[in-house]
Amino acid sequence: MKSLRNPLANAHNHGAAGEGVDHWWSQRFSAILLVPLTLWLVWALSVLSGSDFEAAREWLAAPWNTAMAILFVVASFYHGRLGLQVVIEDYVHHRPTEMVLHLSVSIGAIVGGLLSIIALLNIAFAS
Questions:
Q1: Taking Cα atoms as reference points, which of 89, 92, 84, 122 lies closest to residue 15?
Q2: For residue 108, what are the CA distances in angstroms to 29, 46, 91?
Q3: Which of 13, 28, 98, 111 fits 18 for a cystine, CB–CB 3.0-4.6 Å?
């Protein structure tokens, strides 16, 4: 029996048509978020240039600065993971290698982000 359903309706929200748009928006959102965060980082580095470790630690201990630094780390690692995911999907065509690379990039982003956040909190709250 032939289906009366339009073939486009069967394909709608399946495969890349469903996932690609979300990935695209996530990458654009993280890029837009990184613009003011990068400007903040440049400003922060200019304020801290010539300072010793104790002055930098006191500056980072301010809640606003700690939060901005953590947000920068999270957005950077997330954006980097999204970008590497696209490169892997576009250029690696051997499925097992692609899966290993995706897993490695995801684990690397999570571990790198967590270690960076722990280091920032350790510096900010050191006595």
A1: 89
A2: 21, 29, 20
A3: 13
Can you give the pLDDT at residue 16?
A: 54
Reference 41, options 80, 76, 71, 69; nearest CA is: 69
CB neighbour burial string for 4-26, b if at least 16 within 10 angstroms, e if fewer: eeeeeeeeeeeeeeeeeeeeeee
- Gyration radius (Cα) of the chain, Å: 21
Higher pLDDT, 10 or 107: 107
Whole-prediction pTM? 0.82
- Predicted confidence at residue 120, as pLDDT, reads 95
